[in-house]
Amino acid sequence: ATPTSIMVGIGRGAEMGILFRKGEALQLLKDARVVAVDKTGTLTEGRPALTDLEVAPGFDRNQVLTQVAAVESRSEHPIARAIVEAAAQEGITLPAVTEFESVTGKGVCATVEGISVKVGSDRYMRELGIDVTGFAKTAERLGNEGKTPLYTAVDGQLASIVAVADPIKSSTPAAISALHQLGLKVAMITGDNARTAQAIARQLGIDDVVAEVLPEGKVEVVRRLKATYGRVAFIGDGINDAPALAEADVGLAIGTGTDIAMESADVVLMSGNLQAVPNAIALSKATITNIR
Ligand code: ADP
Ligand code: MG
Question: What's the N-to-C CA distance of the chain in angstroms?
């Protein structure tokens, strides 16, 4: 590739809202075999809302919501914001919280008015020795609907199942189709629960799903995809995505995401619209073909 043609390609990209931080990325993208995509905030809006709350026998719905929202008011996770907003809409005032702790990729816990409250994934509950099988049917249904089920333990007792749903961006289905039309496989990497991830992948026609990945595990998944498919492009927006963006042959960060993701990426997409990904690959193909 001549420096001039690369410069022209980079200029075109900029007009399309695709910023190449490295010229090499423009040359590498055309040979991508698989596009691996973070789910939350990349395929979806990253703005979940609380959709369901079911309490175990003997627990009061409003009291549990109050306790859960109180703990979540100390968390920065989008799930936390969804729960706090739901409590606010019901006019609930949140009590003070002590001993707050965040267990990355699993959940949160704290003491609320002297009572231990823990909120998180089924894996988190399993690790705490809390049996969630009482909600198995509900969890299965929620997961199949593409919602994320979470559990609450109050004083060590299973108290509720809560679900949040994060809408798929309206631009995502067409972007996935365009990637398929370019002959690429699309893989989803997420920390979310497996059933939920499968439901969303099914809706979008995604080829490969790796779910329940801990934040530090995404890099390992990118390595495995490289070994399986060949050249990998990874798209992400979060702090968790930074190492995977660096590990991929081409890392593309969503410009509306975190600064750390953008700093780790080879390409920054100005908008959250994933159509920019097939556009960037098509631009790479066009640029490199012109040189031959
Ligand atoms: P992702 O961003 O892909 O959803 P995370 O690693 O941030 O992945 O979270 C993985 C899972 O950990 C969530 O689906 C949820 O079950 C649990 N979790 C993380 N943070 C919280 C929180 N603040 N409250 C409840 N559950 C949480
Ligand atoms: Mg994300």
Answer: 8
The reply to whether 129 and 92 lie within a common domain is yes
Distance 81 CA to ligand 1 centre (A): 12
pLDDT digits (tens, 9 = 90+) for 85-140: 999 999 999 999 999 999 988 999 999 999 999 999 999 999 999 999 999 999 99
CA 120 from chain center: how many Å?
16
* Residue in 290, 284, 278 with CA at minimum distance from that of residue 37: 278
Nearest CA to ligand 1 atom 8: 191
- What DSSP assignment string belongs to 251-284? EEEETTS-HHHHHH-SEEESSS-TTHHHHHHHHH
- The pLDDT tens digits of the residues spanning 242-256 come to 999 999 999 999 988
| Reported pTM | 0.90
CA atoms within 13 A on the CB side of 142: 23
Same structural domain for residues 39 and 172? yes
Q: Is 38 a catalytic residue?
A: yes
ipTM of this predicted complex? 0.95
CA pseudo-torsion sign 266, 263, 34, 44: negative
Compute the distance from residue 237 Cα to the ligand 2 centre, in Å.
5
Could you tell me the residue range of the domain that residue 197 belongs to? 3-45+168-291
| Range 17-26 burial, b when 16+ CB lie within 10 A, else e | bbbbbeeebb
Q: HSE, CB side, 13 Å, CA atoms: give it for residue 123.
A: 14
Kind plus residue range of the DSSP H or E element containing 154 = strand 148-154
Residues contacting ligand 1 via CB (< 6 Å)? 39-40, 72, 75, 77, 79-80, 105-108, 119-121, 148, 150, 190-192, 215
Counted domains in the chain? 2
